[in-house]
Amino acid sequence: MAAGEREQGEAPVGETDRAGLERFRYEYGAQPLHLIAVVVSLLLCGYALLRINNLDNSLRIVIWIVAAALLHDLVALPFYSVLSRITHGAAAQAIESRAMMVHALNHVRIPAGLSLLLLLVYFPLILRVASDEYVATTGQDVNVYLSRWLLISAAMFLISGVIYAIRLRRGIPEPGAVAAPPREEDSVPRVSAPWRIGADLTLAASALAILIVAAALVVGLLTTGLMP
Amino acid sequence: MSRLEDLGKAVEESEDARKPPVPPVPNAGPFRRDFFTSPLRGRWLTSFLGSSMLPLLVIAALTGFLSHAAYNPGLGSNDLTGGFDVDLYFLDWPTSPVWLYSLTQGLHLIAGLAVIPILLAKLWSVIPRLFEGPPVRSVAHSLERLSVLLLVGSAIFLLVTGVINVEYWLTPLGFAFLPAHYYAAMVFLGALSLHLVLKLPIVASTFRREGAFRPLGEGIDRMRASDPTIDTLASPAPAEPTISRRGMLGVVGLGSLGLVVMTASANLLGGVREIALLSPRGQSGGPAGPDDFLVNKTAELAGVTEDMTGPDWRLQLSAGSEMVELSREDLLAMDQYTEHLPIACVEGWTTWQDWTGVRLRDLAAIAAAASESVVLVESIQEGGAFSQATLAANQINDSRSLLALKANGEDLTLDHGFPARVIVPALPGVHNTKWVRKMKFSEA
In chain B, which among 196-255 make CB contacts under 8 A with chain A? Predict the structure, then answer.
């Protein structure tokens, strides 16, 4: 039978293939399919880089592409590390209870992170680094962005603070106490007296801050020409 | 006790002895494996961030190439990418629906901005990989690292150039934005194709093992760090968590949402500009009135003065060697049409106005142009990539395409293109040439 003959004849060839495959994997470090994918991908990139080479100031473009990756790694990593060490250290020192520390930390760092994100994306407008180009092109006022960013940041901290204060009043359970069934005498939140005073103060301060920010918003919007 | 300790030490030492020679990688700072202590890192987090980013990247890439097509790069000197040797754009950019370009370009900005926090989080989640030793394990590994360098570099390059371009901060670039952004996108897609081939199987197996969404149900108390022996992205020395994975993802999502609301969504299709507080185009155009809409480029910047647009201004129409000159009065004496059309800018903002003027196809008839002609429109503005544009036959022949003389019933202001400007449905904003001086019809 033709099929049988082929099978018989192919067995040793298959083994040679396998040995060759093993050898390839040893020398190259991955399967042949990997190499094909790499070649296709690098050819695509190579084509685009070739086109970039035809543009004016092409070297700058390539340098910017590579520098973008390196800059991110060299700036972001130390930034994240230092920031997390400082905030964790400060929060852990200031607040003994771990659950309390975690909540305080998050209620500060989340609005701070979002505020920094907005600054990262809009800093040319907020810090007026491109004010001449912006004004010349659009004919609009570039000065509104700093105050808007400050107000948005203030609002985020405020919202975070209010939520924090409400949580403090309700009481933050320690880990482990979560699963414990609520008891009759637990109707009073399980927080210590100083914390309840702190919570009340935070609530009062937040209420005051709401008024201030609301007033600032109205004044800000009026002066930026956003409202008629 | 001491005997146990001794035993432990002996085991450690014997294990050390069996290890191959130490690779030439410094064993300090981030090169120490236990430098990275976040219990959040792991394959699931990275897979989830990558998977959330993928649809956004697809939208950004598609709408980006569509934007290129919308400029009709095959006509005249419309193509600003330095010429494509393969013409991939077979379609004539349509004129319906009129908000088509507003939609595609709005989506381009929404997707691009929404990616920023997700990309930052994803890079954070894999940053230990950068310091892994040995730096080069094999040919395959070194090629992969080269590809990752291009992937990360081009991704950040695209986001940075895109963002600072819409904020008009052009000085730091030192090169033309448009072709650089265009070809960097190709570098990115080339590198992304390999990344997907290599990583999608890992994402799939991670989701099969851990559930695509199941870890989202774990709060900070239930969350566990991944096992570093099977999950190479997990920390070998995880600290106690200070936020859950879903908490972190929530913050990332909030950041994305914030950026979208702050800019693009409020501008998409000319939406609610009042909430686009930080958008470069979040302000109204000027003092309230019929001219209170956005100016792409002021007359002052374009070098166009009132002297150039005074009573001596003539519109020159030509087809072949014949030339017809029309004054503004001549144009106003023609049949006038009013259309409610958007100016949709490549920068992602849109403004809808009522434009009044003469039909482009009536002008083509006056110039005695052939029915399938294209037209080169030139501005009074000297120089600048968009002081001219070539329009396709379908754009001239659309009855809504106007040479506008008025906006909202009032004469155009100088900033809005007085004495006459082009307004064509679904056309990228800058191709609606302002301060039109010449229209040269020719057969395609």
Answer: 197-198, 220-221, 240, 242-243, 247, 251, 254-255
> Distance between alpha carbon B186 and the CA centroid of its chain, in Å?
13
CA distance B46 to chain A (A): 17
Decide the pairing of beta strands B322-326 and B388-391.
unpaired
The pLDDT of residue A190 = 47
A49 contacts: CB under 8 Å, gap ≥ 6: A62, B183, B187
Residue with tokens 């989701």: B207
Measured at the CA of B231, the angle between CA B230 and CA B237, to 5 degrees, comes to: 100
Q: What domains lie within chain B, and their CATH numbers?
A: 29-267 (no CATH), 299-443 (3.90.420.10)
Strand bridging mode B315-319 / B436-443: parallel
Q: How many CB pairs under 8 A join A and B?
A: 221
Fill in the DSSP letter of residue A29.
S
Nearest to B81 by CA among A117, A43, A51, A153: A51
Using the beta-carbon criterion (under 8 Å), do A44 and B143 form an inter-chain contact?
Answer: no
Give the closest of A48, A54, A122 to B187, CB-based. Answer: A48
pLDDT digits (tens, 9 = 90+) for B252-285: 999 999 999 887 777 777 767 777 888 888 776 5
Residue among A80, A110, A124 whose CB faces B251 most closely: A110
- Chain A contact for B193 (CB, 8 A cutoff): yes
Instruction: Give A217 to chain B, closest Cα distance, Å.
Output: 12
Tell me the pTM. 0.84
CB within 8 Å: A118 and B240: no
B278 vs B44, B252, B261, B282, B410, CA distance in Å?
A: 33, 19, 9, 6, 30
CA distance B193 to B320: 48
Mean pLDDT of chain A: 76
Mean pLDDT over B23-27 rounds to: 62
Phi, psi of B377 (to 5 degrees): -100, 125
Q: How far apart are CA B169 and CA B167, in angstroms?
A: 6
If we measure between CA atoms, which residue out of B226, B248, B221 comes closest to residue B238? B226
Measured CA distances, A165 to A86, A103, A110, A195 (Å): 23, 11, 15, 10
Q: pLDDT digit string (tens) for A67-106? A: 899 888 888 888 888 888 777 777 777 777 777 888 888 8
Say whether pLDDT at B429 is over 80: yes
